[in-house]
Records
---
Amino acid sequence: MNNKILITGGSSGIGKGIAEHFYERGWDVLITGRNLSKLEAAAAEMPGIQTMEYHSSDEGQLADIVDFIQDYWEARLDILVNNGGHVTIGGLEGLEAEPLMDMYRAHLIGPSLLTSKCLEFLKNTRGQVLNVTSSHGIKAYPQTTAYAS
């Protein structure tokens, strides 16, 4: 039975690089993302990987991921990579609640809920969680206030 990895934000950048690494080593790979065309392009480059649309604020999509792992991967997950995210550009002046809340949903609430829902599967394999963050948490820049928080 192949090892299994779930990577949020897996259709580009760091997430896609992680997906390629494990795909090349024969792992079963599930990548998620917000952009269906990017997910389809990644799947075309790595035949056999699984893709799912996932917005961190969509509880229905979260349930779909959990159902997939339960039903198709027999409740097994070896690695969860919380990599999905996005940046909202803007400083403190004029900062509004919704973009800030959107950033927190994407970078804190979504990964926390996904990890919580996947713990049962990770326990089955003594699996691991990798949370990918940004250096902006250490050194912020004026126009990345929400992102750096």
---
Amino acid sequence: MIFYTVFTVAIVAAYAYLILFNLQHWTSSKQALIQTNIEKSPFFSILIPVRNEAENITKCLDSILVNKDVDFINFEIIVINDNSTDQTPSILKSFISKGIKVLSLNKGVAKSHKKAALNLGLSKANGNYIIQLDGDVIVPQNYLSTIEQYVKKFSPDFLAAPIKISNSQTLLGNFQILDCAGMMMVTQAGIKSKQWYMANGANMVYKKSDYAYDESGKASGDDINNIQSVASNPESRIAFLKDINATVQTNAEKKWSTLYHQRIRWGTKNRGMKNPKMIIMMLIPFINALLILAHPILAILFFGKVAWVLLAIHLFIKSTVDYIYLKEATAFFKNEASMRFFFNSAVLHVVYISLIGLGSLFFKKYKWKGRIVE
């Protein structure tokens, strides 16, 4: 019983420290990089690898083209079609007349299809900076000028940028809003503190010369692997652009099953992780969630009242720090209304973290847009 009590206290303390650590870096106004103030505007290549995005790609491209009319910065748009089986190819053809380059990935070129699509896009890109987006995002007006101004001011080698989930009226949608907002804070805190490096391929910027390839010429990663490759050079300039004008928006998954498969796909990217601080950062919430689920079982089988008391204390501390944390995040992303779903989401999140963690460890294949991917 002593070990159980001490272990619970240690996990609760570690979790609370991690949340408050992230919160402190999120609210700090200190810049991660020293200003360089280059005068010449860089040329940007916007790469958008897509597969079966007929429902979203028009809105995505239109939102970028609005920026073109407003910002007048130097950029090109390259969309790489990854063997879509819906109406995506015909929709893309209609954008060629608007100056958008459309490339098509050959069938069977690689198991890592998105990486191969990015590889193809990079081979045709003229920009010295790459803006990488997903085909289901919408960029805000002034997005490109915000990116340009930051790049000119700080000359980053890699720039992670925020993502938000569109407002929703459902529990599933608001669960994703809160989860995404919290993950953005984790991403920002790791980069700013230089303790771990994460990014999301739906919205990031990097120098073309810094893109990571393996010896076979295949891209080694489109987000986490790429940023960690850049971070392996201690002289690299990496930042998180905490600006609502640099925040892209995407829709929530419509089914719990598709959300689960999406998160498993993301989670499997972390298997080869070598940064011990990042491993610890991911393990703490996972163990914390498993322990919460274990308390009732331990109460019934072994420890009785003590386990119920520990569960109550555990939930109180976790809920308190999570609420403060997500209140700050949703205020930035203008998703404050989602906090009314906080307590329902908090219960679901414990199960969600446990299932995603276990699935990421044991599943070697996952389903993605009609494909079984290893």
